[in-house]
Amino acid sequence: MQKIVIVGGGAGGLELASRLGRAGLDGVTLIDRDRTHLWKPLLHEVATGTLDDGVDALSYRAHCARVGIRFHLGQVNGIDRERRELLLAPMLGTHGEEVLHARRVAYDTLVLAVGAHSNDFGIQGVREHCYSLDSSLQAQAFHLELLNRFLHVQEEGGEEECVTVAIVGAGATGVELAAELFNAAEMLAHYGVERAGRNGLRVVLIEAAGRVLPALPEAMSQRAQKVLVSLGVDLHLNTAVQNVEVNGVMTKEGAFLGADLIVWAAGIQAPSFLAHLGLPVNRINQLEVEADLRVKGEDVIYAMGDCACLREAPSTAAPAGRLVPPRAQAAHQMAKYLAELLIKRARQPAKVQAIKPFAYHDHGSLVSLADYQTLGSVMDDVMHGRFLIEGPMARAAYLSLYRQHQLTLHGPWRTALMMLASGMNQWIRPSIKLY
Ligand SMILES: Cc1cc2nc3c(=O)[nH]c(=O)nc-3n(C[C@H](O)[C@H](O)[C@H](O)COP(=O)(O)OP(=O)(O)OC[C@H]3O[C@@H](n4cnc5c(N)ncnc54)[C@H](O)[C@@H]3O)c2cc1C
User: Which of 168, 158, 117, 47 is nearest to 433 (CA)?
Assistant: First the structure.
């Protein structure tokens, strides 16, 4: 029996593990350092409390038991490539005591799907003073602090006092968070924190490029900027951060932008342990992979999702070949591709399989500005161009992305039940997490 081990149960790894389990493959193991999974594009909603991860998160152990694969809780920190074993760090309890010793897990085929986290670019003060939306725990920590700040203003604040949140990086994460914060502040006012609301919140959005959503089409960033300005977001474009202090951000232009809470959402990098495995990595620690997602120079080690660097074959539009972007839709497509490849190989090991290279299909981008607006730039496969959608149509497309992830994990019946439950929750539970 072939031992297939997947490290990282995120947008890509968990989909791959679920597909392999459902196909009836024996010997599949998933390893994650966390006990639960929440689809990462939802983290800005956890950070504002508009989504309760206690309700939406999935237990790895329960899910793996259901789809027929093994689950190991643990943080991988090395690979013994000669013996084909993964090295897991000791697991510590809440008081620092060792719950599990350092362990080894054997593999025949290894898939690394450990994602990426925000990149501080070595800027002083980011680690110490900023929140990032890299995990549910960090998003929850931000949410609790946000509630505390509003509570302080409500109970003890001066007349003019409000809560100021600075967000560094006006990519999709920063822009979505900015809008969602206003939505959350309005909801809090409804639940008796009257000093919240739009006037009780100040959001400072800082971006080094000349426009918000710099990686997306200009028309989309113009629309998003209009919504943000109408909400009262204090936009600082063409502004680079020099260093971060406990109470604000110093810009390279010498201005100090004060804030109660600071979120760092500028760029990503893959986990640093990847750079110490003796495998080829780029400057942000992503593993360089071939067109079949095998790590360059390796026979049985694959990488996918945000931790993989794949340059597509040159084309007329991109003579140097485009890099597959670190996005949920890329992780989803890679999971589907690798599942087909590994299932074929497991079922017909003796036969040399001719495998088509992975091809990324960009279906466009969607950005949710909470209840205020949803924008999308969608690829038109017939016209080979992009067009902009907004409003209910864009909202439906945005929501369908998460439903697609759920469908892959749970199948149609369970997903339908989950949709029903979440619809009922809107009636039963408060519309924002208040603890
Ligand atoms: C706030 C936010 C909003 C986003 N919005 C969008 C969006 O709207 N559309 C879009 O396409 N993309 C979006 N993205 C990007 C998208 O979430 C990622 O591209 C996608 O999650 C990548 O999937 P992945 O499987 O590679 O990694 P992840 O989903 O990050 O999963 C990695 C997994 O690996 C585990 N792990 C990490 N290190 C170890 C280790 N050493 N040992 C064991 N386990 C480990 C982690 O616990 C995690 O479960 C967003 C990202 C963020 C943060």
Answer: 47
**Sheet arrangement for strand 85-88:** 76-80, 85-88, 103-106
Going by CATH, does the domain composed of 4-116+270-347 fall within 2.40.70.10?
A: no
Tell me which H or E stretch contains 53: helix 53-56
Q: What is the pLDDT of residue 350?
A: 67
Residues with CB under 6 A from ligand 1: 7-13, 31-34, 40-41, 43-44, 75-76, 113-115, 133, 172-173, 271, 305-307, 326-329, 331
CA 11 to centroid of ligand 1, rounded, Å: 6
User: Ligand 1 atom closest to Cα of 12?
Assistant: 25
Do you know the residue count of the chain? 435
Span 257-279, average pLDDT:
97
Q: How does pLDDT run across 302-335, given as a tens digit for each residue?
A: 999 999 999 988 887 778 888 999 999 999 999 9
Chain center to CA of 263: 15
- Helix, strand, coil percentages for the chain (3-state, nearest 5): 35, 25, 40
The CATH number of the structural domain formed by 128-266 is 3.50.50.60
